[in-house]
Specification:
Elements (H helix, E strand, L loop, with lengths): L2 H14 L3 H10 L5 E6 L15 E7 L3 H6 L1 H4 L6 E4 L13 E7 L8 H11 E12 L5 H17 L9 H7 L3 E9 L5 H4 E8 L2
Parallel strand pairs: 1-2, 1-4, 2-3, 4-5
Antiparallel strand pairs: 5-7, 6-7
C-alpha cells in the first residue's frame, strides 16, 4: 500500500463521505439495523453515531484499512455498544453461517474488488430473514451522465482508492440473488451528478 493510500486517502474519504449530505442518507438506513450487525466498509466509523443503541447488541466492522480504523477510535469511544474490527475486504467475512441479524453497507460496494462476492458473503452470514440496509452511489440511469461516468471512472479509481462511480447497485444485488424490499434513488444535492446518483434501501435474505 502506497503512502497516499495509507496516510492521505483515509483522511480525504473521511472528509468527503462525512458531509451533511451523506449523513442524511446514512440516517435513512443505519438506525434500522438491529441485533448482531456486520458493517461492510466501516472505514472511519461514520455510521456509528446513526445506530440505535437500544436495538444493537454488537457491530462487527469489516475494512481492509487499518489506518481508517485508527481514525475511527474517537467515534468508537462515543457509542454504547461494542464495536469489533476485522481487517479484511468485504468479499471474505470471518463469520459463521447464519450468525448475524443485520448488515449495513454504505458507500463501500463502489470500492470492493468483487462486490457481488461480498454480497454473497453477507447473504451467507445473515440469518434467514436477516436484513441488509444500504446506501450507495452508482451508475446513473441518465445516458448522458452514465457516459461521463464511464469516461471518468478509470481516472477516478486511481485517485479515489479503487472507487468506481459506474457500478449498477441494483444489478449487483440481483447478481447476488438478494431480493430488495424497498429502494429509493436520487441525485444527492451539492454533489456532482457523476458521483451523486444515490441508491438506498432495504434488502432481505430468505
Amino acid at each position: 500500500m502506497s503512502f497516499y493510500e495509507d496516510r492521505v486517502l483515509p483522511h480525504l474519504i473521511n472528509c468527503a463521505c462525512g458531509s451533511g449530505t451523506f449523513h442524511k442518507q446514512r440516517a435513512k438506513v443505519v438506525p434500522k439495523a438491529h441485533g448482531q450487525v456486520v458493517e461492510i466498509g466501516i472505514g472511519t466509523g461514520l455510521n456509528l453515531s446513526h445506530y440505535n443503541a437500544k436495538q444493537v447488541e454488537r457491530v462487527i466492522g469489516i475494512d481492509p484499512s487499518t489506518r481508517s480504523w485508527e481514525l475511527a477510535q474517537e467515534r468508537v469511544a462515543q457509542v454504547e455498544f461494542p464495536v469489533e474490527y476485522r481487517g479484511l475486504s468485504g468479499d471474505q467475512l470471518p463469520l459463521d453461517d447464519h450468525s448475524m441479524d443485520s448488515a449495513v453497507i454504505t458507500y463501500s460496494l463502489c470500492t470492493i474488488p468483487n462486490p457481488v462476492d461480498a454480497l454473497r458473503e453477507v447473504k451467507r452470514v445473515l440469518k434467514p430473514g436477516g436484513s441488509i440496509w444500504f446506501s450507495e452511489h452508482g451508475l446513473s440511469p441518465d445516458v448522458s451522465v452514465a457516459r461521463w461516468q464511464d469516461r471518468i471512472n478509470p481516472i477516478w479509481k486511481r485517485i479515489a482508492g479503487g472507487c468506481h462511480i459506474n457500478r449498477d447497485v441494483t444489478l449487483l444485488f440481483q447478481l447476488a440473488d438478494i431480493d430488495m424490499v424497498s429502494c429509493e434513488s436520487m441525485y444527492l444535492p451539492k454533489t456532482p451528478r457523476i458521483a451523486g446518483y444515490n441508491v438506498c434501501g432495504h434488502a432481505r435474505v430468505e
